Amino acid sequence: MNNIEETIHINRLLDIYGGLLSKTQYEILSDYYGANLSLSEISEIRQISRTAVSDAIKKGVEKLYNCEEKVGICSVFDEFKDEEVAHKIEERLRNGI
């Protein structure tokens, strides 16, 4: 997976499983993958070290991948990629059903 594909995939996982992360992890991942802020920018905004930001990203991404591995919502959507129903379900999940 290249960087763009990975970013898109992580944003999808964040939309679906983001509620399972801590508030801080969610915000940092949103800043990094959604707003495209750098580690330095995030650490400056949050007044924490770059290492803390990096650790939050690594742990948050790992948790998102673990959730997908166990539940597999993205995999199900991918199977029905062209189906309107899958898109409606995904939209409802993003909006908190």
Describe it.
This protein has six helices and no strands. It has 97 residues and is mostly helical. Helix 1 (3-17) crosses helix 4 and helix 2 (23-34) crosses helix 4. The chain has a single domain (3-70), classed as Winged helix-like DNA-binding domain superfamily/Winged helix DNA-binding domain (Arc Repressor Mutant, subunit A, Orthogonal Bundle), CATH 1.10.10.10. The protein has helices at 3-17, 23-34, 39-46, 50-71, 73-79, 84-94.
SSE topology sketch:
Blueprint (H helix, E strand, L loop, with lengths): L2 H15 L5 H12 L4 H8 L3 H22 L1 H7 L4 H11 L3
Key attributes of the depicted protein:
single chain, 97 residues, mainly alpha, Arc Repressor Mutant, subunit A, 6 helices, elongated
- Amount of helix: over 70%
Main sheet specs: none
- Write down the Rg: 14 Å
Overall body shape = elongated
CATH hierarchy: architecture: Orthogonal Bundle
CATH class: Mainly Alpha
Number of domains: 1
Count of DSSP helices? 6
